[in-house]
Amino acid sequence: MTTSSGDASSGLGPGAPGGPAKRATILDVAAAAGVSRQTVTRAMNAMPGIRQETRERVQETARQLGYTPSRFAKGLVQGARTSVGLAIPDLTNPYYPAFASSVVELATQRGWHVVMDDYGHGGATGVESVQHLAPQVDAVIGYLGGAADEAQAILGRRPLVVLDQPAGSASGGITFDYAHAARTALEHLQARGCRQLAYIDRAGTDHGAPEPVHDGGPRPGPGPVQGVVTVRGQAFARGAAAAGVALAVSVSPESAAAARQVTRRLLDEHPGTDGIVVFNDLMAAGVLKALADSGRAVPADCAVIGMDGIPLGELLTPELTTLALDLREVGRAAVELLDGLLTGSLNPAGPGTELVLRHQLVLRQSA
Amino acid sequence: MTTSSGDASSGLGPGAPGGPAKRATILDVAAAAGVSRQTVTRAMNAMPGIRQETRERVQETARQLGYTPSRFAKGLVQGARTSVGLAIPDLTNPYYPAFASSVVELATQRGWHVVMDDYGHGGATGVESVQHLAPQVDAVIGYLGGAADEAQAILGRRPLVVLDQPAGSASGGITFDYAHAARTALEHLQARGCRQLAYIDRAGTDHGAPEPVHDGGPRPGPGPVQGVVTVRGQAFARGAAAAGVALAVSVSPESAAAARQVTRRLLDEHPGTDGIVVFNDLMAAGVLKALADSGRAVPADCAVIGMDGIPLGELLTPELTTLALDLREVGRAAVELLDGLLTGSLNPAGPGTELVLRHQLVLRQSA
DNA sequence: CTGAAAGCGCTAACAC
DNA sequence: GTGTTAGCGCTTTCAG
C-alpha cells in the first residue's frame, strides 16, 4: 500500500523500538484516520472547513503515528520562510555573540530563520563556511575575512552581506572607519600626556587562517614589527605616522592570555610605555592583567584603550576605556541591508549597500 | 526604518533590476542551454556521464541566470541533511555562546546544520522558541526552562534534548548536580573560616518569562527571602540547612549591574557577610564590583564563589573562584545524546538519556 | 553520453 | 464538510 520497500527496516510498526521509524507521511495518517489527505492538511494546519470532531480524531492519529509534516514538501509548495546563514569566526570571542544576538533577534522579528555557523573552531575558513551554509539558506551575513568574491560566487544571486572587509563583489558590506578610530584614540592618549605609545595587533591576516605573521624575518616576537597585517593595525600605523608619533607595534594571537604574555615582553623592551591601544577588548583584558603583573597602575602609569565595546569591558578592573561599536546597531545595519536586498529595494553592490560605521570612544577608567 | 518601499517591484521581468527576480528553475537553465533538465542536474552536481564541454556551458548558463537549486526540492527528493534547532535564552550571557559554540562545532562535524534561536530578547519563552524552530528542524537541543512536555509534544517524534531542567517527557535531558555543587562551595567557604554566608539567586523562575520579582513591594531587595525559585537556589538553601549554617539569600535579575546593586544592599543589611556564593559568574562579576565599592578586600574580608566557569572569570580582579562546568563537555554530551537518539541507538526517554553532570570547584583568587 | 519518465510529501484549487 | 486533481523543483530510475 505504501511505497514499495525492500528494506528490512520498513516492515516494522510505527511504534517499534530499536530504530528511528521511517517517517510517517500524510497518506499514512489519512489512511489510519480513514480520511483523505486534504482533510489531514486541514486538521494539522488549523484550517477552516472541517468538523471539530474530525479534526481531533485526525490530530490524535497523527500524534500516535508521530507524524511530522516534511519541511521540504511544505517549503516546496508554499515558498517557505527565508532562512539566512550567519557565518561567525568564533563564538567564543564575546564580540561575535553580541553581534549574533542582535542579528538573530531582528531576523526572528521578520520571520526569518537563522542558520548559524561558527566556523573558526574546526580551522575552517569563511569561504568553507559559506559553502556549508549555501545549500540551506537564501542569504548570508558573515564575518568572512576576505574572499568575499568567492563567497558571492558560491551564493550566486543570493545576497551576501560581509562585515569588516571590503565588499568586493558581495551584495553588500559593512566596514568600520578605523582611520577615525585610530585618530580618536591617539589624540586622546596624547591629550592625556602619554608619550610612548604602543599598539597590540592581532596575529594573522584578517580572519583568514590565523597564520603567524613574519616572512622569515628575524623577529617573530614583540617589538616594533613592520608586518602589520590587519586593517586595524594599518590604520593605527598610518594614524601614528600622520600625527608624527612613534608607535611600538606588537602582534599577539587573539586571546587575553596571549595578549598578556605579549604585553609582558613589550614592557620589558619598552619599559617607558605609557599608553597602549589594543586590537580588541578581549585582548585588552590580558593587557590590563600584564600591567597589573608588572606593578604598573592603570591609567596613572600606563593608559589602555580597547576596541569593540563589549560588556566585558565594564567588568574589568580598572574598567576599560574603549573604542566602542554599538553591536546591536551593527546587527541592525546588517539585517536592514539584507532586508533591502531581499525585498529588492536595494540593488546588489548598488548604491547604499556599503555602510561605514564609526567607533565611539567610551571613557571609563583605563584611559 | 528604511524599508518602506512601495510595492512597485512586483511585475518586473526576470532580468529587471530593482526587484528580486523570480527564481530561475532547472528548466529555465535547461531551455537556455538547449539541453534537458537531467543534463543540468549532472552539470551542477559534478556527476559523471557528461562531456566536459557541455558541463561548462551549462554551468555558465546557470551562472548567468543566477540559478540556485531549490533546497526544498533537493531536500524532498534526497532526504537532506539533518538540521538541529538550538534554543538559547540569551546569547548575551557568556555562558550560552560557550555552550553553543561547542554544539555548533560538533554538529558541523557530523554534517548537521544548526538553526539558532536566541529567544530571550523578544521576551519569548522556550516553548515559543521550539514552535518557531519546529517547522525547520529534525531535532532540538535547548535551554527551555520548563515546559519540556509541551515542547516535546510540538516536536512529535523528533528528539528533544533539554538542559538544566527535568527531562519530563523529552527524549533526553542533561541536568546538573546542584546539591553536590552547593555542598562543595559551602564546605570550602566554611573551611576558609567564613561564618556569615550569603547566596545571591537569580530572580524569576528558571528561564520562564524573566518576570521581575516585585516592583512595588516594600522589600524587594536582600534579606533572607523564602521565595527561592531556582533549582540552584533551592539546592543551596537545602545544603545550608543540612550543614546547619545560616544563609542569607538575596535575589537579583540576571546581570552584573543588577547583582552589584543587590549586593550593596545585602552588605548594608548584613555587614558581617564574609562569604558569598552567586548564581552565576556574570552576576559574580557584579558582586565583586560591589565588594570593591564598599572597600572590602576579596577574599580577605569576603570570599566570593561564582558558578559556570566561563572564561570571563579569569579576567576579573580578583580572578573568580567558581563552580565550573566544562561547557565544551556539556555541548558534547548534548550532541552525543542527540546523535544516539537520531541513529536509534538510544530510545527516547529510555535508559541513558538522562545525564547528570557535576560542577568542579576551580580555585582562583576570590575564595 | 543524453533524454524521458516517475515520483519525493505537501497544499492550492476546484469538484462533490 | 470532504475528497479529487494538479502541480511545487528536483533527482532518481530507465530508455535511447
From the 3D structure, determine the CATH topology of the largest domain in chain A. Answer: Rossmann fold
Name the chain pair with the biggest interface and residue counts per chain: A-B, 71 and 71 residues
Percent of sequence in beta strands of chain A: 15-25%
CATH superfamily grouping of the largest domain in chain A: Response regulator
The H/E string of chain A reads HHHHEHEHEHEEHEHEHEHEHEHEE
User: How is the biggest beta sheet of chain A arranged?
Assistant: 6 strands, parallel
Question: Quick one: how many beta strands of chain A?
Answer: 12
Oligomer: homodimer
CATH class of the largest domain in chain A: Alpha Beta
pLDDT < 50 runs, ≥5 residues of chain A: 1-21, 208-225
Q: What structural class should be given to the helix and strand makeup of chain A?
A: alpha/beta
First-last Cα distance of chain A: 76 Å
